[in-house]
Design goal:
Blueprint: E1 8-14, E2 17-23, H1 29-36, E3 55-58, E4 61-64, E5 77-79, H2 92-99, H3 109-122, H4 128-135
Parallel strand pairs: 1-5
Antiparallel strand pairs: 1-2, 3-4, 3-5
Length: 148
C-alpha cells in the first residue's frame, strides 16, 4: 500500500478571517471549505466544473472550487456565500435573489449569487447575451436562446 502524501500548510483568508491548516495536497478547495472550515454554503454538484454549485470568489474572481486544490489557494482571499452578508444584513445580491424569486430549489443559488457578483463587478449593465454567456452555469445552453 503506498504511503500517504506529505501534508502541506495552507493559509487562506476566508470571508475576512485568516485560517491556517495542514492539508493533503489532493484536498480540493471545496472540501477544505466544507469539511475543514465547516462552511457548507458552497455545495458539491457535479465535480466537473459544469454546474457551478461550488462557485466561490478567489481573489475577486469566480472559480469552481471543485477543481481548485486548497494548496493553490494558499495566500488567497476567498469569499463564500456566507461572507456576503454584513452585520446581519443581506448583501444586495442576496436580497435581489430573494425579491425576484431567483432561489428555485436553492441548491446552486450560492454559486449563482457569487457568479452574479463577479459579472456585475466587471459590468454593471450587462446585456442578455453577456448574462447568458458569463452567468449561466452551463453557458453552452445560451446558444439555444438567441432573442436579444
Amino acid at each position: 500500500m503506498p504511503d500517504r502524501a506529505q501534508k502541506v500548510s495552507v493559509q487562506v483568508r476566508v470571508n475576512g478571517k485568516l485560517h491556517s491548516r495542514v492539508v493533503e495536497p489532493r484536498c480540493l478547495l471545496l472540501e477544505f471549505l466544507r469539511e475543514d472550515l465547516e462552511l457548507t454554503g458552497t455545495h458539491i454538484g457535479c465535480d466537473t466544473t459544469y454546474c457551478g454549485a461550488c462557485t466561490v470568489l478567489m481573489n475577486g474572481a469566480a472559480v469552481k472550487s471543485c477543481t481548485v486544490f486548497a494548496v493553490q489557494a494558499d495566500g488567497a482571499e476567498i469569499t463564500t456565500v456566507e461572507g456576503l452578508e454584513r452585520d446581519g444584513e443581506l448583501h444586495p445580491i442576496q436580497k435581489a435573489f430573494g425579491d425576484c424569486y431567483g432561489l428555485q430549489c436553492g441548491y446552486c443559488t450560492p454559486g449563482l449569487m457569487l457568479s452574479a457578483l463577479q459579472l456585475l463587478k466587471d459590468n454593471l449593465s450587462p446585456n442578455q447575451k453577456q448574462i447568458r454567456w458569463e452567468y449561466l452555469p452551463v453557458h453552452r445552453l445560451s446558444e439555444h436562446f438567441q432573442s436579444d
